[in-house]
Recover the amino acids of this structure.
C-alpha cells in the first residue's frame, strides 16, 4: 500500500506520524495547543526537525500545560533559550507563552479551545480527494480566515501557511492522497 509522497520512508518517526496522527481529528485542548505551538516552531524549518525534537518540547514546556506556561518568568525563558532539545529561537519560545495566554482566554470565552478552532470548519473534518501531493494547497480561504482571527486573538506564529499545516495535522482537513493507505480512514 502506498503513502502520501511527502513521507520520508527511511525516517520511521515520519512514517509513524503520517500513519497514526496526520489527518486524524483531534479534539483534546492540550493536544490542539501542543500542535499549534509545534507548527509555529516549524516556521522556516522542516517538520521532521520538529518531530525529532518533539519529546524535548514536551519536557521543556511542561507537556504543553498552558496553566504552567503562563507562569514562566524571564529566568525560565532563559533556561529554554539554552535548551538544546528545542529550537532556541527567542521569538518562537516567547510565542509559546503568548499563545498559552491567548489559549486560556479562548477556553474561557468558548468553553474549550476545541470548540473555537473547529468552528472554522463547522465542527467536522473536510475530506479532500487529491490524486497527488502536488495538488494540495499550502493555504486556503479558511486558513486565511483562521490566521487573521488567531492573530486578532493574540496568537503568534500563526500565518496562513502555518494554519493550513495545523489544520492538516489535527485532522480539520484530510489531505491524504487518494492512493494513500490512510485516505479512507
Amino acid at each position: 500500500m502506498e503513502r502520501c509522497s511527502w513521507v520520508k520512508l527511511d525516517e520511521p518517526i515520519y512514517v509513524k506520524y503520517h500513519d497514526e496522527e496526520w489527518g486524524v481529528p483531534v479534539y483534546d485542548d492540550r493536544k490542539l495547543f501542543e500542535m499549534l505551538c509545534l507548527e509555529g516552531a516549524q516556521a522556516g524549518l522542516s517538520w521532521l526537525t520538529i518531530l525529532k525534537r518533539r519529546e524535548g518540547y514536551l519536557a521543556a514546556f511542561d507537556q504543553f500545560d498552558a496553566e504552567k506556561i503562563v507562569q514562566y518568568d524571564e529566568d525560565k525563558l532563559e533556561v529554554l533559550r539554552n535548551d538544546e532539545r528545542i529550537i532556541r529561537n527567542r521569538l518562537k519560545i516567547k510565542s509559546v507563552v503568548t499563545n498559552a495566554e491567548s489559549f486560556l482566554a479562548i477556553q474561557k470565552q468558548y468553553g474549550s479551545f476545541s470548540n473555537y478552532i473547529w468552528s472554522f470548519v463547522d465542527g467536522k473534518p473536510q475530506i479532500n480527494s487529491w490524486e497527488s501531493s502536488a495538488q494540495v494547497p499550502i493555504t486556503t480561504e479558511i486558513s486565511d480566515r483562521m490566521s487573521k482571527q488567531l492573530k486578532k486573538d493574540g496568537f503568534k506564529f500563526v500565518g496562513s501557511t502555518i494554519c493550513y499545516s495545523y489544520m492538516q495535522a489535527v485532522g480539520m482537513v484530510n489531505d491524504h492522497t487518494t492512493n494513500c493507505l490512510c485516505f479512507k480512514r
